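Form 12-C: Joint structure prediction
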Amino acid sequence: MNSSNWEHFSHQADVGIRGTGASMDQAFEMAAYALTAVVTDPKNVTPETILHIHCNESDRELLFLDWINAIIYEMDTRKMIFSDFKVQTHNGELYADIKGERINSKKHDPAVDIKGATLTELKVTNENSQWTAQCVVDV
Amino acid sequence: MELSLFEEIGPSMWQINPIKKMKVPAVIYASRELIQGMDNKVYEQLCNVATLPGIVRKAYAMPDAHWGYGFPIGGVAAFDPDQGGIVSAGGVGFDISCGVRLLHTGMKRDQLSPAKETLAELLYEKIPSGVGSQSHLRLNPQEMDEMLLSGARWAIKKGFGSEADLEYIEERGFVEGAKPEAISEKAKERQKPEMGTLGSGNHYLEVQEVTEIFHHQAAETLGLQLGDIVVSIHCGSRGLGHQIGTEYLRAMLDAAKKYNITLPDRELACAPIQSEIGDAYLGAMRGAINCAMANRQIITQFTRNTFGEIFPHSNLRLVYDVSHNTCKSEWHKIDGENKRLFVHRKGATRAFGPGHAELPEKYKKIGQPVFIGGSMGVGSYVLVGTEKSESLSFSSACHGAGRALSRTQAMKTWSGPDVIRKLKEKGVIVRSGSYRGVAEEAPDAYKDLHSVVNSAEQTGLALKVAHLCPHICIKG
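Section 2 - Result
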């Protein structure tokens, strides 16, 4: 992976999401992009509606878990999909703007609902100034 | 996995004797080939489950076991509340009470054939399925709480089905002890538009034909004959269960610390059964079980209405409804003494043997019906529980085939239109809102269902009754 990127990693029944970046915030943003890619190609999602997310958790791995679960909740209750993420974290507080649109079968060909983020392979690391944030999501 | 990790204790029975902090042995029921095809994580996760407080007898994995979250999928473990036993949100999973329900249409193949395409279209139109799907139902807060308390009974009261259906649902359609107040407003909000929806992923509604009968007495009792047309419905508690799983998994991380429970892996987050949070989770989870049974009951009525439009004289009889992601309070004999245990079945089906008090009168002589769902290509199996499964696995059996390829690999390997075309050549009509979803659920992405079912029978977990082959698949 490049310094700022996302990917899926293998899990037998479900899907691992991973984001990397020069900062933890960027890794969180890229992982959210990977989350969308579980459902559809994020490039096909128009960032037309903005939502605000706030999480509070001192453990950075659990903060990541809360962040992903907050997006899943918005996806499910608003029937939306997101492609633009701006994250700011400080002292265990996360504030984010996420942009997307209502899910549309014809446009997005959505593969699967995401049930929740799991603690499986949950990691937030900083190695050689490259941050990685990842977990497996249940689909 | 390497067979050398296990002691072979019988045909398709492999034991891990206690090592490190394991309190009890662990056993996997599977053929050599299935064991060799399993991820090492199954071994690791099963050993971890065997370290949990209050675990009774052994930790078990079914023939379809695969890598899960803390517990392996296909895992069974029972805990004694009087011995500090725990309840684990991860041991139940996110899709609480996901299960399979079988309906008998009273029709034969030759009656279905002329209307197959029309029926496929109408079912796809009438049964909400796929990502973001919603039904026309909206429950107000009072109705939501009533539904959480009384499950399929609530649905029937609202006109979805008849009282006669209740006899053929586990626990007669609802579990006692649900606590709507232990379920967050977020979970209820998530469920609001999702009553009567199939969901996505491996969930489905299939119109199938009985193509093989293995156990004639049981088939006769269940009313299944060669050539009969049946409907299988596979879905769960939808957003409500997902949110309960999410919130309590998180809360149990703190609870495990509070109660000094040493976790070999934090995915095993749990709480004592006899604790405030353990009790709250059980109350919430029971609400989700009731939600799943209500959901399948509503979809049953949608299905009946749809059949009625094409076949005015059809009468879809409920054969049985079983769940496979649950924690249930049950009585089991341990060292000659009846004990109330909390049995976690994560991707495993309850499979009581003949004579069990929980069974409908009509099925008491054959044991509990068990439905094993496969991929779009191979259909399903009907099995029945055995007396032996009580001592083997707290009366549990497998639930499906399990994936052989990840979704990512499947998407790269197959295309949705190709999968649909190839299945059509075999006589299976697939209707889905997503080509990508179909590719990810391609038949070859799953393990060999026949091997899984044969292992279940060989070990005595359950007996094969019938094989059901698909004609129409409405894919979530």
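Section 3 - Comments
Residues 59 and 92 of chain A are 7 Å apart (CA to CA). Chain A has one domain: 5-138.
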